[in-house]
Amino acid sequence: MNKFYVVLNLILVVFLISFSACTTEKGASEASNNVSVFSDNVGVARIVYLNTDSLMSKYLLAIELNEAFLKTQEERRTELNVKAKSLDQEANEFQRKLQNSGFLSEARAVDARDELLIKQENLRRLQEDMINKTGREQNELNKKLFDSLTVFLKEYNKEKGFDMVLSTQLGGNVLFAVDGYDITQEVVNQLNKEYKKENTSK
Fold it and tell me: How far is CA 192 from CA 7, 19, 196, in A?
């Protein structure tokens, strides 16, 4: 799993915990729903969970955002590698000329060295700028996905009336659950249905 998915999973965990804590609306009757429940002194609680690994790998918006992010990353790496290779060649040429007394004067050699140092500093700044841009873009993409899920789950739960939606992933907290607890595929199907509808209307 790449860094993009790791960050998204962490955001989803925080959101789902907050979402579960503040959910109060009840939807369709429990008799018509396949979700398992348990009782305590307070009453009946309806608990389900989402597998965020599966959600992120199947949700079309998440796939689109991740592909765009990776494409931009690859373009930046290519640009940086081309500039770094060119600078490396200039540095080698400078060393060759210096060793073979290829400069007309010491002042020319100093000027060439200083120019090389400036280019190295510019390359370092470019790399730093790319890292910062990547971080900002990743945050923007994560927020877009987070907002999409927030809007969807609020509407989704008006009908379902869950008391708690847990978040898990491969090797996470939910090691086993009987049929009816995992709503991942249903959520993915509805998210993708809405996504396709929105993109068709554009």
Answer: 21, 21, 6
DSSP 1: -
For 100, how many CA atoms within 13 A lie in the half-sphere containing its CB? 7
Domain residue extents for the chain: 3-200
Q: Is the pTM of this model over 0.90?
A: no
pLDDT tens series, the chain, 202 aa: 455 555 555 555 445 544 444 444 444 344 334 444 444 445 677 888 888 888 989 999 999 999 999 999 999 999 999 999 999 999 999 898 888 888 888 888 888 899 999 999 999 999 999 999 999 999 999 888 888 888 898 899 998 888 888 888 877 777 777 778 889 999 999 999 999 988 887 6
CB 174 within 8 Å of CB 36: no
Residues counted in the chain: 202
On whether the CB atoms of residues 31 and 160 are closer than 8 A, the answer is: no
